[in-house]
Amino acid sequence: MTTITLVQGDITRESVDAIVNAANSSLLGGGGVDGAVHRRGGPAILAECRRLRASHYGKGLPTGRAVATTAGDLDARWVIHTVGPVYQESGGDPALLASCYRESLRVADELGARTVAFPAISTGVYRWPMDDAARIAVETVRHTPTAVEEVRFVLFDDRAYEAFSRRLG
């Protein structure tokens, strides 16, 4: 059974088998978690992302999918990049957000990862409401069969930590 833990802090400082990156579809870095992962992880991550773009993902990584690269200088073996959906006034597709977590766990299983750190996917510039994002994340992880032993939600601020804590309650 997978243990779910919460940490408030910087996901790039976690010591785990795999860190999940809330990437943009280009896989070439960006803001928020994506920018932090690329900055702290160093050029090896970007080099592998460029190779993925040149081979399998010429049009970018589709929303809800996940792919792994090296973790570069991070204290992890891999970075699992996933592209979260953008939430707009009309709402967002919860199935796509759930897919980010399911697909990341599938990739983690393929890699043999036992500890995985997730951010609150799509809650930054993609504007998914934190309470709903926490509900989708926790429910999806709880109901996805996986060999991952620990899923660690690494949450940047009090608001995110409190939202996820309520869902774990």
From TrEMBL:
Instruction: Kindly indicate whether the keyword Hydrolase belongs to this entry.
Output: yes
Q: Which Pfam families match?
A: Macro
What's its EC? Answer: 3.1.1.106
Q: Which residues form the Macro domain?
A: 1-169
For this UniProt record, the keywords arranged alphabetically read as follows: Hydrolase
List, in alphabetical order, the Gene Ontology terms for molecular function in this entry. O-acetyl-ADP-ribose deacetylase activity
Q: Is Ubl conjugation found in the keyword set? A: no
The identity of this protein, by name, is: O-acetyl-ADP-ribose deacetylase
| Organism from which the protein derives | Streptomyces plicatus
